[in-house]
Design goal:
Blueprint (H helix, E strand, L loop, with lengths): L4 H12 L4 H8 L3 H9 L6 H11 L3 H6 L32 H6 L8 E6 L6 E6 H23 L2
Antiparallel strand pairs: 1-2
Helix pairs in contact: 2-3
Length: 155
């Protein structure tokens, strides 16, 4: 019998969290035997227990239930984090942002994105951020500075 996505995710997330079946079961309010059966795919937890386990492991309920692990793949991402797949860079550095990401972040043709980078070992990477987010930060910083300048003048 092939293990369901839920069973694989429960088992992988528990091990990645460094929890024993006993500790995870205690957090979910069930016996170790019940948790073991869920992880083996013999039975399925009800939605309330799934919700407790998703919270325990810091993932969305949807990812706990539906994230499909591929051989050698990563675990379901933490709540609010997303893995959209792999893109290939074109000859001139262009990439296509996956449709699911464009829909989730409401990105449309012609939108301006800021490319950010980190070259520090262990955290190196590239991020794309909608330009209005960066503009909003500058406006907020400017307002904070104006407020601070106004307080200094009143002294």
């Amino acid at each position: 019998m092939e293990q369901s996505s839920l069973a694989k995710n429960l088992s992988s997330l528990r091990r990645a969290s460094g929890l024993s079946q006993e500790k995870a079961a205690e957090a979910a309010g069930v016996t170790r035997q019940a948790l073991a059966k869920w992880e083996a795919g013999e039975t399925t937890p009800d939605v309330l227990h799934c919700d407790k386990l998703a919270e325990l492991y810091g993932v969305s309920l949807d990812d706990l239930l539906h994230f499909e692990q591929k051989p050698g793949s990563i675990l379901p991402p933490p709540r609010g984090k997303h893995v959209f797949g792999v893109v290939q860079m074109g000859e001139r550095g262009q990439i296509v942002i996956p449709k699911r990401a464009r829909e989730l972040f409401n990105l449309n043709r012609g939108d301006t994105l800021v490319v950010l980078g980190d070259t520090n070992p262990g955290t190196a990477g590239i991020a794309l951020v909608p330009a209005q987010f960066i503009t909003g930060l500058f406006e907020l910083a400017s307002q904070i500075q104006q407020d601070a300048d106004g307080k200094d003048e009143s002294k």
